[in-house]
Structures are given as C-alpha cells and as structure tokens.
Amino acid sequence: MFQRYYNWKKDLEARTGLSFGVDNHTQFLNSDSTRTPSNAASNVTRLYGTWSAFGRGTPDTGALVFKFEYRTAIAGRISTQALGPTLGYAGLFSST
Predict the structure, then answer these.
(1) Which of 26, 32, 61, 89 has the fewest CB atoms nearer than 10 Å to its CB?
(2) What are the tens digits of pLDDT across the range 50-76?
(3) Residue ranges of the domains in the chain?
(4) Residue 10 CA to chain centroid, in angstroms?
C-alpha cells in the first residue's frame, strides 16, 4: 500500500541526501474534579530528519540533523501540561 511512498523516499535520499520522518501526537485529558479547568487537549506535530550534504557514500559524511515542532492546545482548551497544577499534580503527563 505504501510501497510507492517508500520508494519515493528512498529515491529522494539517494538523489539529495535528504531523509525525513513525520509524527503526530494528540492527547485529551479529563478529570471529574470540581476545580476548573478540569480538561485539556493538545497536539504536537513533528518533522525531523537529516540532510547528508557532504561526503555521501564515504566514511566522513557531513550532515545537518533537524527537527521542527508545532505544538498547540485544541479547541480553546489549555495544554495538557498546564492541567497538572490545577489538579494538584506536579509531574508531567506526556510529551505534549
């Protein structure tokens, strides 16, 4: 099903030295607490990769490694990280 995509990525890396990946993480947390806010929703989308600019095919490759992130709260709610203190929790919920 995804073979055309994988072949395209492999060809792109062979021609340009660019290799990349994308991921997305969405999270919704809800509490029955009487304190407000009692729910939160957030999202993070990442584009990451490497560009082997010099020395491809040799032991001494010069590469640029990169990662771009876009983080947002969803639907006017607060971020899931901001919900913890409202509920009296001091730890981290997840990577968003």
Answers:
(1) 32
(2) 999 898 888 888 999 999 999 888 887
(3) 22-86
(4) 22
